[in-house]
Design goal:
Blueprint: H1 2-8, E1 17-18, E2 21-22, H2 23-51, H3 53-58, H4 62-87, H5 96-121, H6 123-127, H7 134-137, H8 153-156, H9 160-168, H10 172-205
Antiparallel strand pairs: 1-2
Length: 206
């Protein structure tokens, strides 16, 4: 996915800067931040599953210690997309009305998913609390709100918010970064989360 992202990001106008970094530099900060976030989750989940690493080090504060890194990295993803879009704004060259319509339509499912997580499942569960606490593994699947449309609303719908930012500011680099992040989160699901869930919930059934 990285070679594809690199190819799609070229050519880019490089005469816009913010804090000493060009729009291309910010694009790569955004991409690398997403990789760091998902690598951290992979390492944390697998080390906790296999060796109870966070519990051994942090005791009853294991999940809090994990979240202290997880949530800032999560918040950085839309923030950095916005920074890329702002520095690279108007590079997509779409008619303004098309950009506004696309951005607005993509924002709706993202906001609906955020609201559904807050109201029905909770952010702790979304962060992977079932890797740390058995009580979360015994909770039923959420079927309200955005989760009525798809069981995996967080990855299917929430990431459309990144696309929305790119369209609203008409940034080609932000759109490429959003596409990369959306594809990359599904790589995380297939390679990390799905096998983890199979293991966790087979243990729970046993």
């Amino acid at each position: 996915m990285l070679p594809a992202a690199a190819a799609l990001s070229v050519p880019a106008v490089k005469d816009r800067h913010w804090l000493g970094l060009s729009n291309t530099d910010w694009f790569w900060v955004c991409v690398v931040a997403a990789i760091v976030h998902q690598a951290y989750v992979w390492l944390a989940w697998r080390s906790q599953l296999g060796w109870q690493a966070f519990t051994r080090v942090f005791g009853p504060n294991d999940f809090a210690a994990y979240c202290a890194v997880f949530f800032p990295l999560l918040a950085a993803r839309p923030l950095l997309i916005f920074v890329v879009a702002w520095v690279d704004r108007e590079s997509l060259a779409l008619p303004e009305w098309i950009a506004i319509v696309c951005g607005s339509l993509l924002l709706v499912p993202a906001l609906a998913t955020g609201y559904s997580i807050q109201r029905y499942s909770g952010w702790a569960r979304a962060a992977g609390a079932d890797h740390f606490r058995e009580a979360y593994r015994r909770m039923p699947l959420v079927k309200q709100g955005a989760f009525r449309w798809t069981d995996n609303a967080m990855y299917t719908l929430a990431f459309s918010g990144l696309w929305s930012i790119a369209f609203l500011l008409q940034s080609r680099l932000a759109l490429v970064a959003a596409i990369f992040q959306h594809g990359y989160i599904w790589a995380h699901y297939l390679a990390t989360e799905k096998p983890d869930m199979n293991l966790l919930y087979s243990r729970n059934d046993a």
